[in-house]
Write a structure and sequence with these properties.
The structure is a single chain. With about 140 residues, the protein is mainly α. It has two domains: about 55 residues, no CATH class; about 60 residues, no CATH class. About 40% of the residues lie in helices and about 0% in strands. It is built from four helices and no strands. The protein is elongated. Bound molecules: zinc ion (2 copies). The site of one zinc ion has 8 residues, from loops.
Length: about 140
């Protein structure tokens, strides 16, 4: 990535830029994707298309996007990723659907539950992968 404050290329995603000492994503002068100059009002970088509009620090959840993604993929039908994000209400609905589906899989009705919760979990998985999932406080799950 590139420091958004001074434009220096940085390895990985360090908390602090080794060149200027600012938080690399806190600046608004350069694109973090390609290092091109940007203005504070720019929504996207016109050179590479990266989104540079400042995400307010308070809008980003400390929860892991990787954990959310993996939980949604492997245990999504039990609502595991929603439990992880603190969305207990919908998590319990998913868990009940998943359990009901598995418990009644020998009946046709089980398939309906599993398909419904499966689609729901898959949608959550996609939303989590692209970084648009939110935790119970409405903060975006963006950090991997
Ligand atoms: Zn810097
Ligand atoms: Zn760019």
């Amino acid at each position: 990535m590139f420091c958004r404050n001074c434009g220096k290329e940085l390895t990985g995603s360090p908390e602090i830029c080794i060149n200027c000492g600012a938080k690399p994503m806190a600046g608004t002068s350069f694109c973090h994707g390609c290092g091109a100059p940007t203005t504070p009002l720019a929504e996207i970088c016109i050179k590479c298309g990266a989104r540079v509009a400042k995400a307010l620090a308070g809008d980003i959840s400390p929860k892991s996007r990787l954990a959310t993604t993996l939980l949604a993929f492997f245990l999504g039908i039990f609502g595991a990723h929603r439990f992880y994000l603190g969305k207990i209400g919908t998590a319990i609905v998913m868990l009940l659907l998943g359990i009901a589906g598995l418990a009644t899989i020998w009946l046709f009705v089980g398939d309906i539950f599993l398909i419904a919760v499966g689609i729901w979990a898959f949608v959550d998985f996609i939303v989590a992968v692209v970084g648009r999932m939110r935790d119970k406080e409405g903060k975006l799950i963006e950090k991997w």
